[in-house]
Every structure is written in structure tokens, then in C-alpha cells.
């Protein structure tokens, strides 16, 4: 997380990215600001802090923002993430249940997508549920390479980070938080470079 916090501290362009204190609070999964200013501000992607909280499944912050009257798109809350559901896809999900990194790598290189199963679980969900922490760490470090959606929610509404926290894997939850921050900042910078502004 130190790298992401340093990245945020160096951001002289927070205003250009449209990041209010509330956006940062949601992104860092941290204490909310006392000032309601910026609670409904939109970032470059057009997301309010509540939209960001919905997307990242920050339950406590969702409750707080909704109680304070923040605006957000409730459809985002129900969005399960990208990727198709493969109801009987044992080709990818069995190796994930057993923590077999080499098989997952090989199948990905052969064109297999690291999609979700019928329960909405990604291979990363399965790695964490079954305690394959080293394998999970490997894929978290390479989530961009493998096209993994860290915000994907299973049918219980749990993201990979929620699963890590529920199972007491706090170091991995911290690693996932860092990856979520990096992913968000990278996307907003891309929006800025492309000259897009949906705020």
C-alpha cells in the first residue's frame, strides 16, 4: 500500500482527475472526511464517491454516504463485474480450487479466459477460499496481465478483497487494496490522456 499512498501523495493533478476527499476516502477504504463538500463530485470517469464505493464494494462507506444523502447510480451496486459466467467451467476453476498456478497460466496462454463460474467466483475467489495464498499473491501481482477484474462480485456480493478479509488474510487484503488503488488511478490517468471528461 505504501507505493499507492506515495502515488496519491505525489498526485499534483488530483483536481484534474476529479478526486475529492470523499473519492480518496473510498479508494483508500479509510476514515471519511467531516466536510460533506465533494460528496457528490464526479471524477473524470463520471463516478461520484458513492458510485466508486458501489464498484469497490465498500459496505460501510456505502451506508455512510447513503445516510448523508450522497448521489450514486444504484445499478452500479448490483453490477457483478466484467466477464461471463461459465456454469460448468471446470477447465479453469478446478486448477484454481487446487492452487495450480502453472495449469492456470498454461490454460490462459492457450486462450482460456479466467472467467467466473456459475456462482460468480473468479479463479482468484477460489484461490483465496481454499487458502492458496501464494498462488493468490502471484495472480494479484499480475492482475493486469491476466485480465482479472478485482472488483468482480460473486453471487453473495463478495469481491476478492471481501473474501480475503472474511478469511483473515489481511496482508492479501492490503495487497488487493493497493491493486485497486493503482487500477483506479491508472484508469483515471488514461481518461485524462485521452481527453475524456465525464464529470
TrEMBL record:
The keyword Ligase is assigned to this record: no
InterPro entries: Ank_Repeat/CDKN_Inhibitor, Ankyrin_rpt, Ankyrin_rpt-contain_sf
PANTHER family per the UniProt record, alphabetical: ANK_REP_REGION DOMAIN-CONTAINING PROTEIN, ANKYRIN REPEAT DOMAIN-CONTAINING PROTEIN 42
Protein name, entry field: Ankyrin repeat domain-containing protein
PROSITE patterns: ANK_REPEAT
Domain of life: Bacteria
ANK repeats: 119-155
Keywords (A to Z) from UniProt: ANK repeat, Repeat
Amino acid at each position: 500500500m505504501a507505493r499507492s499512498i506515495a502515488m496519491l501523495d505525489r498526485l499534483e493533478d488530483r483536481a484534474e482527475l476529479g478526486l475529492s476527499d470523499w473519492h480518496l476516502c473510498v479508494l483508500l477504504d479509510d476514515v471519511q472526511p467531516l466536510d460533506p463538500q465533494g460528496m457528490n463530485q464526479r471524477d473524470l470517469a463520471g463516478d461520484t464517491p458513492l458510485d466508486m464505493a458501489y464498484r469497490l464494494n465498500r459496505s460501510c462507506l456505502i451506508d455512510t454516504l447513503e445516510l448523508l444523502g450522497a448521489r450514486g447510480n444504484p445499478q452500479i451496486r448490483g453490477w457483478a463485474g466484467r466477464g461471463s459466467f461459465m456454469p460448468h467451467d471446470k477447465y479453469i476453476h478446478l486448477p484454481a480450487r487446487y492452487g495450480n498456478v502453472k495449469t492456470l497460466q498454461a490454460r490462459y496462454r492457450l486462450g482460456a479466459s479466467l472467467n467466473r463460474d456459475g456462482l460468480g467466483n473468479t479463479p482468484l475467489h477460489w484461490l483465496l477460499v481454499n487458502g492458496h495464498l501464494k498462488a493468490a499473491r502471484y495472480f494479484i501481482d499480475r492482475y493486469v496481465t491476466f485480465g482479472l477484474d478485482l472488483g468482480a462480485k460473486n453471487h453473495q456480493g463478495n469481491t476478492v478483497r471481501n473474501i480475503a478479509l472474511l478469511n483473515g488474510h489481511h496482508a492479501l487484503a492490503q495487497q488487493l487494496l493497493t491493486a485497486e488503488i493503482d487500477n483506479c488511478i491508472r484508469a483515471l490517468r488514461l481518461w485524462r490522456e485521452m481527453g475524456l471528461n465525464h464529470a
